[in-house]
Fold this sequence. Notes:
Blueprint: E1 2-7, H1 16-25, E2 28-37, H2 44-64, E3 68-72, H3 81-93, H4 96-102, E4 105-108, H5 125-135, E5 140-145, H6 146-149, H7 155-164, E6 168-173, E7 175-176, E8 187-188, H8 197-206, E9 213-215, H9 220-223, H10 227-241
Parallel strand pairs: 1-2, 2-3, 3-4, 4-5, 5-6, 6-9
Antiparallel strand pairs: 7-8
Helix pairs in contact: 7-8
Amino acid sequence: MKGITVWRDALAGRKIRETGDMLRDNGLSIVSLCRGGFFPGTNKVKRKAAIDDNRKAIEEAFELGTDKIVLVCGADPSQSLKESRKQIFEGISSLLTDAKAAGVKLAIEPLHPMYADTRSAINTIGQANDMAESIDSKYVGVAVDVYHLWWDPDLKKEIMRCGKNNKLFAFHICDWKSPTVDMLNDRGLMGEGCIPIRKIRSWVEEAGFKGFIEVEIFSNIYWQQDQSEFLKKVVSAFKDHA
């Protein structure tokens, strides 16, 4: 089967239900909608606006025909990480009624610590597991992205914990190039870097994950190339290194 993650920016100006139907008519399953989140902030008005935007994302996911939203949880450098995590917990908790009504799951994606200033205060799979367990809803789980988590000495243990709790909602792969020249947009094809992708995949599958393996490569280099050729490279790298 072939699947695709839909980015919310790509839905701008489109009829969402018709977009979902078009993708399925072309043989694609819609794996998830990306992204929700960005809950923390010192301004209460902005925090409420973030909640409203996440409720809109849940509606969009329902209209699109997917049962999952990936959450990039956010952070605010003008306050402590502890406070940002508290606000993330409160933000996700406030969405549970909406998520349940729509049948849409919320996947907390822990991001590499280099993004802890503004993009996410959830930086380890252990923190994501703690939060999902504390919220205690079948609609809240974890997205495992090797780019963000490959360095974690507790990764296997926390993947197993995630699977045992039925919280392993998504699995993303790419590679970490060395040297990395851009903190956001210099990800590599599988096999181009230092991430033990096959080993991590084996842990994820051992933990019971049976969903799509999503290739997620943000790359200024590859985006400038012919995208048909890039897709061929993705397929080849997946077969050889994932």
